[in-house]
Amino acid sequence: MAVYSMTGYASAAVELGPALGSVNIEARSVNGRFLDLNLRLTDELRSLEPTLREMLAAACRRGKVEVRASTTRGAEDGLPQPSAEQLNRLSRLQGTVQAWLPDARSLSVNEALALCRGGAGGAHWEAPALEAARQCVQGLREAREREGARLAASLTERTTQLRELARQAAPLIPAVVQKQQQRFQERWREALATAQVGASIPESALQERALTEAAAHAIRIDVAEELTRLASHLDEVDRLLAKGGELGKRLDFLIQELHREANTLGAKSAALELSAISVDMKVLIEQMREQVQNIE
Question: Is 188 part of any domain?
């Protein structure tokens, strides 16, 4: 299944004929937390709104979608052609109204033509409008799919870069931990010498306590666990991108977890090299977060 972006644009037009006009529909979508449909239809196409909403809901799961539909009238369709039945009906209605309301004025030609157009309805627009809507919705879905493919490729590129940074960090951890342990033990001995507690406490007890504190300090600065969790989250991101479908919210959660691991790596870092790697990771993760905001 493909990965879909919430950003896209499409338009479609169906001609009724040179003398009759055309139906024009355009749709644009941007990212949104839920599916938000905004339809702007002319009076002739107002009856198609429920069908358009169903078509859009089937094609899109999330995003703010705005659809504009209009008609262009041809040379023969500029004025309505009222039938005798319509004119008779208007005449009877006018007579009834004026019988009850003697001060009511008579209909003008323009008003009569407008009422005839409304009475005729937009039935002859319905079939071409539905065809234009199908083309437009399909075009919007394809545009969102193309943009989604680009987003997925961008995210995959960044997961590869994050794995490379994690690979660079892994060999540094044992050396950093050992160096910090040695530094801790040296400061421990200096502190004991300054405090002059060696005379009252056996040397073996001091040495055992120093080893215990050094081990606890090593655990606090060891970031191997964070790198393991980061690799696990990256595997899940790649799995979701390969699976496709509606995955934006799950990716957003994983980005938060990746950011947490990178922050912890920087906070626990005891070496300049690891700090630099943590900063590079956070830059990549922030770029991923911006991309994920557009995924359906």
Answer: yes
In sequence order, what E strands does the chain have?
Answer: 8-17, 21-30, 35-41, 63-73
Sign of CA dihedral 190, 195, 199, 203: negative
242-289: per-residue pLDDT in tens?
A: 998 889 999 999 999 999 988 888 777 666 777 888 899 999 999 999
* Domain assignment of residue 156, given as a range: 149-292
- Determine the Cα–Cα distance for residues 282 and 277; give it in Å rounded to an integer: 9
* Residue 105 covered by a domain: no
User: Quick check: 147 and 277 in contact, CB under 8 A?
Assistant: no
Give, for 61, the enclosing helix (H) or strand (E).
Answer: none
What percent of the residues of the chain are helix, what percent strand, and what percent coil, each to the nearest 5?
65, 15, 20
> Do the Cβ atoms of 279 and 37 come closer than 8 Å?
no
Q: Give CA–CA dist 48/28, Å, rounded.
A: 18
Residue with token string 């030609």? 109
